[in-house]
Amino acid sequence: MSKVETGKNKSAARPDSCLADDLLAKESCRLEAGAPAAGVLSTGAPGAPADSSINRARPRVRPAIHPAIARFLQDEKLVFSLVDGLGSPLNVLFPRHIEETIGRFEQVYKDRQMQGTIYYTSKPNKSLALKKQASTTAVGLDVSSEGELKSALASGFHPERIEATGPKNIDYLSLAIQQNVLINVDNFTELKQIAQMSKYSPRGKKARVLVRLDGFEPGRVKFTAQDSAFGTPVKDAPAIIDFLLEHADTIDFHGFSFHFNAGDYIRRPPAIEECLQLTFRCLELGLNPRAIDIGGGYRIRYAADQDEWNTYVEELKASVLGNRESLTWNDSGLGYHREDGVLKGAPNFMEHYHKNDGHEDFASVIDTPLAAFDGYSTARIVSDNMFELHIEPGRALLDQCGITLAHVNFDKTSILGEQLSVLDMNRTNLNSTQLKLMTDPIVIYRNSDRKPADKGVMYVGNLCLTHDMIQYHKTFPAAVPQTGDVVAFINTAAYQMDFAETHVLEQSIAKKVAIIESEEGVFRWFLDELYNAMAIAEGVKP
Known about the structure:
By secondary structure, the chain is of the alpha/beta class. Helix content is 25%, strand content 17%. The strands form three sheets. Strands 1, 2, 14, 15, 16, 17, 18, 19 and 20 form a nine-stranded mixed beta sheet that branches. Strands 3, 4, 5, 6, 7, 8, 9, 10 and 13 form a nine-stranded parallel beta sheet that branches.
């Protein structure tokens, strides 16, 4: 696997720990007590004081933030101009940052002398700029629909760099066969359809397939079985192998795959062991598998500081128990509730602070000893047997690749006295299905006439619905965001900014702009669909 050069720009050298307070130490704008000056960032902003003290009365969760994104937000004239000119909400992408995340995963491969493909997953974000930037690197692209496959081809990905995943209708499946895309087969029906249509493969090539499995047995480490709508039960693997042997003249079997969600580490070693054992069995029977695909589920560090994150969760629990004022809308508790004076339930939000970044998460998975293979690690087995290891990091490759900006329509007080800041966006513009974003947004104030946010602030959307909350928890900016101010939600590129967006009540879908920073620190922006990574890098596009 070749190492990707990230290009010469200030954002290339992202620190391992991109904490909000460390980014612009040389900047002069600091938040003082009371109202901030015009253009000053608030609550988690890179211009905030380097103060590590915890204020439990006003708990905060400052976001981890890339230095280039911090510099962009300091250019308040540009931020205001973009929102004023292109509308709210506005999704801002930093496509060159994806080269950094790719590079860190590639280094894991290089350090362990492994071969294989890192597949950038297009599902978490619809941005064309991100796809085009990724196409200039060595990664492949994981698509999960016919529309995504067409977009991938138009974005510069050669068909043999594309992997088709997900449940497939006939049109999606036939296009994948015709383009000689690697098909990650979801079920036996798909495999049979591929065999039937394989004569339409280009230039007589065999259809290239992986077979996705699930339902792995716990083995030595016990875990509760989880049902899944995806994949073929591993107990059906013998029948799958028989079918592949019968159709070896038309199907090019690459190997077995699985995919688990973030944090599902107990199930991974047994799944890897079984996939490797099946791979060796297939080799004995005369098939030629050369890869295993262990999917993704590698996490993002959203919060800048572990103590701040832990403190907020502790204060949230205290509020549910009635030991302080509520921190959630209508005392929802975000999954927690009080029963007979005891805290019950579980959080319906993801952990926001992790010790490891995504590539370190991945490295820990493949370095774990496998008991079924005498304690050898996945990395060692893959390297020694000259297999390929495929992954789809998904969320982790989009770390620090985008933010969402929203214009403040007005502020008001709720019926029960909560301070609300009403944004020109709605809950579909900041998806909360997979992740409730718990980090504090950054407020960019347009005017100096402010009122203090003594009781905290809750962000509300523009829908004519009582449950249109942008965030269901309370944050504590220095001042109440008011008409004309801009609120920036950080690290929203993965599954947040456009995964669930709709034209509900005929409200606007957010536009996207791609931002690049020159050597001189000057920012340029492009409409997402007009971004051309190669032409810009080589100076062909002015």
